[in-house]
Amino acid sequence: MTDIRNRAWLWGGIALIASAVAEFALPPSLRASSLIGALLIAAGLVLFSFGGGIRRNIFGGHVLGAVAAVLLAALLVATNIVNLLPDSGGPAWNQEWVASVVGFARLALSAIVVVQVGRSAELSSTWRWAPLWAVLAQEFSWVVFQFGLINAGNTVNGPGLWVTSFFAIVAAAVPIFIGVLAIIVAVTGLSSSRPASA
Q: Residue 73, exposed/middle/buried by CB under 10 A (0-12, 13-18, 19+)?
């Protein structure tokens, strides 16, 4: 496994798994725990986008996938940095509106990334669409999370607790699944042998 791309995908998968582990392993009192997880996801996205060169990345050399991955990485890190700053004291509705816009932007960028992975010739047909289904499950849980909190009155007990727990489990399972998949592909060489399209 001396190929640079395989090593990049291996470490990218490890970074994704580590991001999920960090969310649960780090104490809640550590305010930067979410930022650490975001940095690890961002590192994984960058490794998938540029590991082995732009023409041999996980998107098969397609620029749109790499750009969306970098923007998604930047959005995740920037959002978590902003969350660490003191509350500006602005209107609650304004903060909720910004959070919704950021959430939908993340959803759109994630969709572009996984669709570009699915369209790439760099992965075998058996695996290339697996990240799409994983991200769809995560985004569905996010929608359930948003509507569930609204209907439950944003409470920490009862339905609100169940909705929050469901979202947390799915949110942790998705990067672990994609990370394990990336490691398997890197170690066993399950990527497609077809050259990337020009």
A: buried
